[in-house]
Records
---
Amino acid sequence: MDERLRPRVEIFSDLESLSRAAAIFIGERLLRAVDERGRASLALSGGSTPRRLYQLLVSDSAPILPWEQIHLFWGDERWVPADDPESNVALATETILREVDLPPENIHPVPTGSATVEEGALRYEEEVRAFFASPDGTGGLPTFDLIHLGVGEDGHTASLFPDDQALLETDRWVVPVTSPPWRPPRERVTFTLPLINTARTIVFTASGRAKRKVVRSIALDQESGEKRYPAAMVNPTEELVWYVDEESAGSSTIDG
Ligand code: 6PG
């Protein structure tokens, strides 16, 4: 019996409207986490799709958030300096961190200054473990309140690429990977499925005709969909939501 959560799929006319709706939803879930547990843990993605979403997350079109009680992590990071435009923390800096006052201790970037990518992955896992082991944590189990993920045209998510050994990882929460040549930067650090799948809520965003095959296969045709896509292996504990546009869904309604 497949215990996979059924994804809720929201289809919008364009990237702007899907980003607005996703920002409101993410804001509401972060508020709920702070209300219920006194803090919220959010893991961000990289790539180009989320730029507008992250800008809206700190705009007046989303709920006003208690950023001093929100902790930011990254579901993956490219092995480049933090100020490299290719880095995922640079995207968040341009869109979120410049706009709100997060206490420095609430910002948990991947330590890309480590000597090696393996050391960086080990240190990041230690940071995640320490965060969830703290007194107001969840007794050591990692339970991100919300992880935002994108999806590649090959069905990758975070930096988990099809047929990669990292997909078979069952113990480690963070590992180093090498992306395919067509998706540089090659060296990366990524959350593994065991860490991703203990999240309460996972939000995917996808936009554009190039994503249609994977969006339809993973989000809309879950039964017959391609199971080898890493994004199809994502299965959080409470909510799985896809915010997509008509271009990527190939229709304006779910059964279209
Ligand atoms: C990364 C992202 C990656 C991204 C997808 C989609 O570091 O590249 O975490 O998983 O979400 O590649 O990227 P686009 O939004 O640019 O299509």
Note: Residues 45-49, 76, 88, 150-152, 156-159 surround 6-phosphogluconic acid (CB under 6 Å).
---
Amino acid sequence: MPQIKILPTDLRNKIAAGEVVERPASVLKELVENAIDAGSSEIIVEVLNGGKRMIKVSDNGTGMDKEDALLSFEPHATSKISVFDDLFDIRSLGFRGEALASIASVSKVKLVTGLKGASSGISIEIDGGKVKEIRDSPLAGTSFEVRDLFYNTPARKKFLKTNSTELFHIIDTLTKEALSHHQIGFSLLTDTQETMNLPRASGPRERLMQVFGNEFVTGLIEVNSAGEAMELSAFVSSSGNFRNSKSHQYIFINRRPIKDASVSHALYKAYEGILPPDKHPIFFVFLTIDPARVDFNVHPTKREVRFEDKEAIYRFINSRLRDRIKEDRTEYAKQFTEAPEEEVFGPPSFQRYLAPETSFPAQGGSVVSENLELTYRPSLPFIYLGDTFIAVAGRGGLSIIDHHAAHERVLYEKLLSGMHSMTRQLLFPKQVRVSGKEYRVLLDNREMLNAFGFEVEDFGNSTVIVRTVPVELDDADLPAMLFDIAAGFIDPNTSFQSLKDNIAARIACHSSIRGKKILSQEELSGLLTDLEKTEHPDQCPHGRPTRIFYSLHDLNKLFKRK
Ligand code: ADP
Ligand code: MG
């Protein structure tokens, strides 16, 4: 039961104070964390206009009596700590007693609250920090309604972004709170639409499934491990399940979402030797540490922490994950090493990749003639090197082609030019469950997706239904691609000229992600001819080379003949 007191001055001065209200999402974070601290099991969030017009958080927690309700808006008023030593044993999300005072000073707030079991509660209205009205009200639990954020500070209001950008931040913030508090039910209504509905879950795995869908969670490995004074529960990429961006990386320490370069590094390091360049692992890391060994009183919005023993944390996370990932990697590798003999690259299988009519010698490498034609003929001799590279004799030399990169370049330019002609209707329209943030962004950008050959519709409950895809994306992993496209919309990569280019590059990248396809003679020469027609045939949209060419002259030089 809250018993709010004003913190003594010397303790106030030891608190990392600072502005906590940057934007609607920061208001939401403070209100939701208060609701969590109040022991709620259901939290309902409603927002209007990306939270600029209104943010309302209702909970079924302890509630407050009249005295506490009035005190809660005072600066440095908190029920969560009272003496200096409490700072080293923080078990609640809040502790500074500042949030409500700051929020109330820059908005119009209505608080309705009542203690559980009490016969009546109280309703307080405050505008710009001044109490306007106090009434009795029959409510157990608490509801905070914050309207017209920054109405009295136009300079700060100017920095707010569009409704949809503010909404992404709101969804992102609420998603993080929901991931680390699976035992609480969360729902989010945005302009009367239900954007998120997460019933109370049995554990983090179930919560992850609710947010990202079952398929997404299947691609993760779960690691649970206890160490000295800390406990780790993590869900991380299994071998081969990597992303093009850092969009699915979450770190929680004692249930708080934080950013920490050293924890991230420990994770990346665990994938050393497995993670391809430019790829990023998915990770959800929930670390529980003795509160005496971690300081949350570092950053005004508590985004950063200071560990008593940073290296111990690094070693713990890195070693536990590395071992588990290694196990998974061994399992993964079996798929290839135990494959039937003809699947394995080696002399006998050369024949398989050769067109019957070629005179390519079965052993001894290719014969490169200076008279080979300029265009690639359907009967060109070629050899697969692994499953990515193809060596082709032609154009008076030897080309080594990265067929995925080549394919990406071709598709990327096709997407950016004549788009519609390439759409293919899916026989079975595919439902893809995404998280609330992705859901909104995909639906908001349906028009551009359409132009690229995706017909995407709202299926409700964070699910979209995909009816058509570009022909080239026959076997792409649709959920992974949609996540990636959504990440592109949310966080446009500035190294690309425009959003359209960025999205096209992301789509193109997925055309070849499943990589195991062996091309036929016709497909290969088709690909090479298409590549030739592109504007930048030598590079994929991300700037990696698509092909490397050795002329006879180069080869002579390499063999020191000239
Ligand atoms: P802090 O969370 O750091 O204590 P706040 O300004 O966020 O400071 O809140 C002040 C006090 O108001 C809290 O300590 C708590 O006692 C009370 N309070 C705020 N929100 C709620 C809520 N939803 N339910 C019950 N009590 C609340
Ligand atoms: Mg608080």
Note: Residues 2, 4, 30, 34-35, 38, 59, 61-64, 72, 77-80, 94-100, 142 surround adenosine-5'-diphosphate (ligand 1) (CB under 6 Å).
